[in-house]
Amino acid sequence: MLQLASRASRDRPLKKADMKTVIKISLIALLWIIAVSPGTIYGDTLIRLEMAHAWWTGREEVTLTLNNKPKSRLDSPGVSGVGGKRYTTYDAGQSLLMLPGDWLGSQLHRLLPQQNENFLRRLVVSLVIFIPLNLAVVLACFWLLRLFNFEERIAGLASLTWLLGTTVLAYAQNPQQNNQILLFVIIGYAAALACVRHGKLHFAFLSGLALGAVILIRSSSVIHVLTVFLFLVGCLVYQNRDKLKSMQVAGLWIIGLLPLSMLGRVIDYLRFGSFWTTGQSLWAKQVKTDPIFAGLPQLPDNYPFINPPQFGIWGVLFSPAKSIFIYDPLLLPCLLLGAFLWKKLSPYMQWYLLCGIFNLALHIALTSKLDFWHGDAGWGARYHVTSVHLLLIPLIALFVKRLSSVKGLSRWLMRGLLILAIMMQMTSVVLRPVAEGNQIYFANPQSFLEFRWGERITNIGCLIDRSFSPECPSKLNSNLSNKLSLLPFNFTRGRNFIFIVWGSILIVAIASTMRFYFQG
Q1: Is 370 helix (H, G, I), strand (E, B) or coil?
Q2: Residue 238, Cβ neighbours under 10 Å: how many?
Q3: Cα–Cα–Cα angle for 453, 375, 136, rounded to 5 degrees
Q4: Which residues are 80's β-sheet partners?
Q5: Domain extents for the chain?
Q6: Hey, is 230 helix, strand or coil?
């Protein structure tokens, strides 16, 4: 076994996680994930599901009718690739994850031909693929917290708080790529730390492999690859002075990175005819030259980098519609708490937080000039929340630990902040993201001065009571009720029975959470 630690004896050995705690948080998290699941798929994820379906059925990814004519160059007719076929512009990773569920849904349709095949495919993928993946996100968070030497109960409480009190919950419901990327990045960090602390080489390979999956899901996620590698190198430098052993670990990490990241390149080669071409880079070229757009106004020469950088930076940090501090209200107080306790943190945690802040800063800089820096109708700043989630993992654990030790006014303030954060995330899953507006292109800056959460509260109030706001009649007339995002509202047959089952799951989730939080 590789012994990486000249200082290992100074570290308290990581205890084996209590299986009772793991089982408890698994069951509670599973209940909540099921309760907020819509049981269907929409938006960009639906397009990626159709990609997966096209692959195993032998169909084209994009099929256009003869009279198909885009109304704008920002419409999505795909790109022209190998064999003159049209392909979607998305990376292959999420489609590969959904492919087994898509196949299973189609087979289920053969047994239940009276049920719509598309409905069954989406239902099966939602329940069989995304629910387990979201549960794995919570367990990966718990693993990382245990590696940071948080006690089992604190790690368990923090993992559930992280799920329920941050935008992790919104993206557990809305199956964009966010939570799948989050899962593999957490595994990357945790496996890197486990390798350094326990001296087991296979963890270095696992860390690299997880980051390869991140690249496969979204090729622009190279920032996560960089920051996880920096974290690994920094931990090696702190823990071990043997350069040869450190190079061995780094080499294994790189070897682990290659298989899945190269798989993405091979798939794109088969689709686009070039090993280094992605769907997005090909779209950027063809959107100006593709004959399908003939006669339509050209986009700006530098599209999509059309904004001054301060626009995107300000928007992510402070805009009422997208601010990471508003839609993850635990972020700012947790950052302040982390700064207050900085000298008491382990070097591993300090380095993790520095890498996390660097990761967030790079993502903000990368998207600052983009027309769609905001992530369109996504809840919060969709392209940046994963970086926020990563930062909050140890910070929420520090918050929970601090909450258990303070008394008086400080305790009540911290509890109030926690309740506010959880309530905000609960409102995010009642309605679909498009309830407050569809995709925004060339958006007027004024649109990001609108308080998105306030609009969500108004919409929910209108559903409960038509007199809640003067705007309610117009909102209800625009089929606001059709945008309810909870499982029973996506069924027409057997809705009463599904309501009973779903309601029971929700009640048990609330009761078990309260019991776990307040047990001695």
Answers
A1: strand
A2: 16
A3: 85
A4: 86
A5: 24-451
A6: helix
Q: Are 158 and 397 in contact (CB under 8 A)?
A: yes
Packing angle between helix 19-36 and helix 495-518, nearest 10 degrees?
140
Which amino acid, residue 243?
K
Token code pair at residue 89 = 């512009």
Query: CA geometry: angle at 312 spanning 307 and 314, to 5°?
Result: 130
> Can you give 66-102 as a three-state secondary structure string?
CCCCCCCCCCCCCEECHHHCEECCCCCHHHHHHHHHH
Give 61-84 pLDDT, tens digit per residue.
988 877 778 888 887 788 888 988
Contact 269, 230 (CB under 8 A): no
Tell me the pLDDT tens digit for each residue of 107-116. 999 999 999 9
Please provide the DSSP assignment of 430-486 as one string: TB-GGGG----SS--GGGGGS-HHHHHHHHHHHHH-TTS-TTHHHHHHTTGGGGB-S
Q: Number of helices (H) and strands (E), helices first, in the chain? A: 21, 2
From the centroid of its chain, how far is CA 486? 19
Is residue 520 predicted with pLDDT exceeding 80?
Answer: no
d(CA 52, CA 125): 11
**Structure letter (DSSP) for residue 406:** -
Tokens 């941050």, residue?
A: 166
Spatial distance between the Cα atoms of 309 and 292, rounded to a whole number of angstroms: 32
Is the bond into 304 cis (omega within 30 degrees of 0)? yes
Structure-block tokens of residue 163: 């799920």
Residue 465: per-residue pLDDT: 85
Of the candidates 183, 246, 141, 196, the one whose C-alpha atom is nearest the C-alpha of residue 347 is 196
Q: Which two tokens stand for residue 514?
A: 């309260």
- pLDDT at site 329: 97
Q: What are phi and psi of 14, to 5 degrees?
A: -75, 120
58: left (phi over 0), alpha (psi -120 to 50) or beta: left
Question: Phi, psi at residue 80, to the nearest 5°?
Answer: -85, 125
| Cβ-Cβ contacts under 8 Å for 23 (sequence gap 6 or more) | none
Structure tokens at 120: 């069954």
Phi then psi for residue 278, to 5 deg, are -105, 165
